[in-house]
Amino acid sequence: MHPSTADIAGVFRAEHGRAVAVLARVFGDLDIAEDAVQEAFAAAVEKWPDAGLPPSPAGWIIMTARNRAIDRLRREASREDKHAQAALLHAQDEPLEEGVVRDDRLRLIFTCCHPALALNVRVALTLRLLGGLTTAEIARAFLVPEATMAQRLVRAKAKIRTAGIPYRVPYEADLPERVRGVLAVVYLIFNEGYAASSGDELIRSELCLEAIRLGRLLVSLMPDEPEAVGLLALMLLQESRRPARVGPDGSLIPLPQQDRSLWDRGLVSEGQDLVRRCLRRGAPGPYQLQAAINAVHSDATSASDTAWDQIVQLYDHLLALTPTPIVALNRAVAVAELDGPLAALALIDDLDLGNYYLFHAIRADLLTRLHRLPEAVAAYDTAITLTTNTTEKAFLTHQRAQVTNP
Q1: Which intervals hold domain RNA polymerase sigma factor 70 region 4 type (predicted)?
Q2: By three-state DSSP, how is residue 280 classified?
């Protein structure tokens, strides 16, 4: 087979994280690993179109990267470069072993998501090293200049090196907390794609798909971690609704008004199967419960058919595990469907969410349903002011106009 440039790009995206993970162990340095993998893929672009795909593209990339890195380090070591000398010594003690690739990728995940790094840095490193996204792609996704993102990545790798952040899977006592941190990074990536925090577009599908790919990787590497399974189920069920969330004109369509025939039934089925797998384990966690809530939504053929009593019960469990104002706000939305808007309004009015635009948007909807229109308009005004996404701002502005000019 003679691959096209697109085929090689697909191999790059699929195998970049694996290759960097192996080379980071071999040389003990993320910069050396990443540069070597980039050189290997550049060589692949030159050779594979004529020579064809090798039997093991990942193995070819890893071996080529290792050889290129060693050649470069030998040249630098001969010039008394202490860093190159150390990397060469490290490589002599770390042979390439296919059997440890699983552990290598876990080590890289936990290094990228180390709590000593700022959250936005963890996200950027995960997308760069594990996802293989270019610096320009990450910068574009998070609406920052490419130079800013490049500096962020350089500083992050320097901090890993100078602060001695270990390249290893955490000790057993630290593992649950560190796993939660990893899952939080992946879900943050998904959420930024699912409902962009700023910019003109509501959805950035490339981030959603990358987060799901990372979620699948985590489940394959940690099959006994139920919250990893729960997170993957949650993302799949939410992603299944993407075709129905935006109208032909780019406008936002909320869940009750969505054309459910547009939902991706394959993703729904896979997500529901994973939720059932979680339920059989009997160790519910926050991601599993959120996935179960979304599974109930996906069971309903219309908004009016939704089993709101089940959703409220699931939110009760979720609120007991994570008693946050956001969970309480989402539970109140379900209570409004079960017990009416007045009951829901009483639940949310004391929540400390004054700077959260959705709090005001939900209040505005409840107040509208109670025919308290001046209060609803004021709530919409606050929500519109706090919203930084153009599509969501347009939706809220339209809702406000419906109140003032029904």
Answers
A1: 109-160
A2: helix
Nearest by Cα to 247 from 402, 391, 405, 396:
391
Provide the residue count of the chain.
406
Residue 287 to residue 180: CA distance in whole angstroms: 10
250 Ramachandran zone, left/alpha/beta (phi>0; psi -120 to 50): left
- pTM for this predicted structure: 0.85
Which residues fall within 8 angstroms of residue 231, CB to CB, at 6 or more apart? 183, 186, 187, 215, 218, 287, 291
Q: Provide the domain limits for residue 50.
A: 1-97
What torsion do the CA atoms of 90, 96, 102, 107 make, to the nearest 10 degrees? 10
How far apart, in whole angstroms, are the C-alpha atoms of residue 90 and residue 30? 13
Rounded CA-CA distance 84/32 in Å is 9
Identify the domain boundary among 97, 122, 148: 97
* 170-215 pLDDT, tens digit each: 887 888 889 999 999 999 899 888 877 666 677 778 889 989 999 9
